[in-house]
Each structure stands twice: as structure tokens, then as C-alpha cells.
Design brief:
With 420 residues, the protein is an alpha/beta fold. Helix content is 38%, strand content 16%. Helix 6 links the parallel strand 3 and strand 4.
């Protein structure tokens, strides 16, 4: 069977996925890519139903789901409607698959709507007192920072920030721990910053934080699905991400990881069905011993099946391959545009400090105008970066990009923007 035929049959199989009433869908690959060669990326690209003429470079904002994910969700939603059942039993298979993708155990994972919700659970659930301090990077997304600002506003904790060092990982360690004092209780980092794609050495931060008894939380909205993530190897206390970015999972999906020894240290900021291991009104309640305690109420099984399918596709491609592909495209784009007059590259040069995001600025040009013209004139959907006054444009390179199909178009567009 040739590769094209295999893909067609694999997609047909994905479209035909059904789950018997009360059954559990196993985490199985959506496609089997077999031997990999350069043409394989074209076949991966064909799995994503983009509008013809759209060249999509905003995965850091929204990573649209593939056709197998959409088909799995559609069929599961239809099944639920036909039978009038909620299929709660599917959650555990999805949880096991997603947990395995990031090196966690199923009981260390809770499904949430997005990274913002997961970050808020940590910010609201840790036992902090007036005057306690939390360290954030200055490029933290609102979904990672607002919950801390709310606690600062109402409870008197103190939020401190550092400006990320774009030059060396060691420089960031110095900047973080220069802020640490006896009142420091939490360090939260963007694993990869959204504005310019700075990749922090989270393993080194985790080690230093543990040595000082400081809780280390990672906002992984820009890392899970872009690079291999193994929370156990990192050594963080907790990790949050959204499904709808680099994982190309449905909107409304995400997860919160809390390392098993620290589950009891995070109180529930919301509670409902699944938060308990037993109760009796009016005064008996026992927490669910798993991180699942932070899930509450009915979950859409179709979304979870979509999440599981998205993870299965990434595992079929291979996370090392995905990360390498994105970084190679960034490197080629960087070299092709670096000499353009008036252009400044804001993504770090050190290969240890970036992967699939490339952010640039054009002197004297408004980033909103650049992004609008790139979309209108070249079909390139990118994102402006206004945070910290950067006035820049961000390109997110992912599995649906190819050097031959996308790089010349991007380079031509940026050269055109620089000229006029």
C-alpha cells in the first residue's frame, strides 16, 4: 500500500470511529505514517482543512483541529445525541492518553477549559497570606497573570516581575532568583513566552525552586504540542496548558497537572461532581484523591474524544520530529530575512532559547498594519505583538508548514512590508 492510499484509508477509519454505548475508546494512532520522508509534511498538511489560499501562522493564538479530530468529535456528538447518554466513561481513556503525552500519570491530571482556568486553579488554591510574594515573567499572558493580580488586589499578596533575558538561559536564572527572598512562595513561568518565543530552562528553575521550598508552576500554553514536554523530568509542582494551541485539539480543552505528592496543597476553587470521593448532606465530604477533584460538572465527551485524537496524531508524527521541523523552519526564515533593512528580530538567537516562534519588528511600521496587509495581500494569518510596547509581528511555524510552500511567501511578504 502506498502512503497516499494509506492516508486515505486512515482518514476513512478516523471518520468512522464510533464508541459503543457505555464503552471506552482506546488511545490509538489516527494515522500510521510509516517511513518518514520530506513529502510526509504535505500529507500532514492535508489533514488540516484550511480555507484555500490561507497560510496560517497563528498557532500560538489558536491551533485549528485536524479533520480526524473534527470527525471524531462529530461522530461522538451524534452518538451522544442519538442515545441521550453523556459517555462520562470516555474521560478516563482520554485522561490516560493525554497524561502519557506529557509524562504524567492519569491521577495527576484534571481536564479544564484552557490554560487560563488551570492557572487560576493554582493561583486561587495555594495557601498564601498577606505579604507573600509571587514571581512572574513580564511577558506572562493575561490568562497566566490576572488570577495573581486578583489575589494581590483583594488579599494583599505581592506580585513581582522580571524582564526576560533574551540572550542566555543563565541570565534568566539570575533575574528570577535575584527577586527571591524569605517571602517568596511561588514562581510561575511561561514555559515559552507568547510575545517573542523565549524558551526558559524550566528544569534548572524547578531544581533551584525545590531547593528553596518554593512552588514552581509552569504556564505551558505555548510549549505543549510545540516541543516534547515531560513534567516528571522538568520537576515542576504544576503545569497548565490549553488544547487549542499547539496540540491542535478542540477549543474548550486543556489540562492541569499537579505532581502527586503535592495534590493536597491546592484547595479547590470550584467544586462539583467529580470533586468528591463520597459525601452525605449536610456535613460529610471527602475529596477525590486525584487531581480530577478540580473538575466539576458535566464534561462534553465529544471534546475529550477530540483531545485524545489530537494527541494520538501528534504521537503518530512524533514530538521530536514536530519540534525539529518547527525550529528548522524558524532558522531558515530567520536567515532569509535577517538582512532586511529596518528589521529587528526579537526571538532569541541562542538555539537553547527558542523553537517554533519567530517575532520581528520593522522600524517605523505599525504592526497592526503589517499583519493586516500580510493577510490581505499575501494570505498570511499572523499575530501582532503589542505586549510590553513591542509593536511586533509573530509567526508560529507548525506541522502544516513546509519550506517550499510557505517560506518564500513569508519572506516575500516581509520584504514587501519593509519597502512600503
Amino acid at each position: 500500500m502506498n502512503r497516499k492510499t494509506f492516508f486515505k484509508r486512515s482518514l476513512a477509519g478516523a471518520a468512522a470511529m464510533t464508541v459503543p454505548l457505555g464503552g471506552v475508546q482506546g488511545a490509538r494512532p489516527v494515522v500510521d505514517l510509516g517511513e518518514w520522508d520530506t513529502s510526509s509534511w504535505k500529507q500532514v498538511r492535508a489533514l488540516f482543512p484550511f480555507e484555500p489560499g490561507l497560510h496560517y501562522f497563528n498557532t500560538g493564538g489558536l491551533g485549528p483541529p485536524s479533520t480526524p479530530v473534527l470527525e471524531a468529535m462529530r461522530r461522538q456528538a451524534e452518538l451522544q445525541a442519538r442515545h441521550g447518554e453523556n459517555y462520562h466513561g470516555l474521560a478516563e481513556g482520554a485522561r490516560e492518553a493525554v497524561a502519557a503525552h506529557v509524562g504524567a500519570e492519569a491521577d495527576e491530571l484534571a481536564f479544564v477549559r484552557n490554560a487560563s482556568e488551570a492557572n487560576s486553579i493554582i493561583a486561587g488554591g495555594l495557601d498564601l497570606r498577606r505579604g507573600d510574594e509571587v514571581i512572574l515573567d513580564a511577558h506572562a499572558h493575561p490568562g497566566g497573570s490576572f488570577a495573581w493580580l486578583v489575589r494581590q488586589k483583594h488579599e494583599g499578596i505581592r506580585v513581582r516581575i522580571f524582564e526576560p533575558d533574551p540572550h542566555t538561559p543563565e541570565g534568566n536564572l539570575e533575574r528570577i532568583f535575584a527577586l527571591v527572598n524569605k517571602r517568596t512562595r511561588v514562581i510561575q513561568l511561561s514555559h515559552i513566552t507568547a510575545p517573542t518565543g523565549i524558551l526558559f530552562d524550566v528544569e534548572a528553575v524547578a531544581k533551584a525552586a525545590r531547593e528553596r521550598g518554593i512552588w514552581f508552576h509552569i504556564d505551558g500554553a505555548q510549549s505543549a504540542g510545540m516541543i516534547p514536554v515531560d513534567v516528571r523530568t522538568i520537576g515542576c509542582h504544576s503545569f497548565a496548558t490549553s488544547g487549542h494551541k499547539w496540540l491542535n485539539a478542540p477549543q474548550g480543552t486543556g489540562f492541569l497537572y499537579i505532581a502527586r505528592p503535592h495534590i493536597e496543597e491546592v484547595a479547590c476553587v470550584h467544586a462539583g461532581a467529580y470533586s468528591d470521593a463520597g459525601y452525605e448532606l449536610p456535613d460529610q465530604f471527602t475529596y477525590n484523591p486525584r487531581v480530577q477533584r478540580h473538575e466539576y460538572g458535566t464534561r462534553d465527551a465529544a471534546q475529550l474524544v477530540g483531545f485524545q485524537t489530537a494527541v494520538a496524531l501528534q504521537r503518530a508524527i512524533g514530538m521530536e520530529r514536530i519540534a525539529r521541523h518547527g525550529k528548522e523552519l524558524v532558522d531558515r526564515c530567520r536567515e532569509a530575512i535577517r538582512e532586511i533593512a529596518g528589521l529587528t528580530l526579537l526571538t532569541p538567537e541562542d538555539p537553547r532559547m527558542y523553537n517554533s516562534i519567530l517575532t520581528f519588528r520593522l522600524e517605523g511600521k505599525d504592526s497592526d498594519v503589517i499583519a493586516s496587509r500580510m493577510k490581505k495581500e499575501h494570505g498570511i494569518r499572523c499575530r501582532t505583538v503589542k505586549e510590553r510596547g513591542l509593536n511586533a509581528v509573530r509567526l508560529s511555524w507548525h506541522v502544516y508548514h513546509e519550506e517550499e510552500a510557505d517560506l518564500p511567501r513569508v519572506v516575500t511578504a516581509i520584504r514587501t512590508m519593509a519597502r512600503g
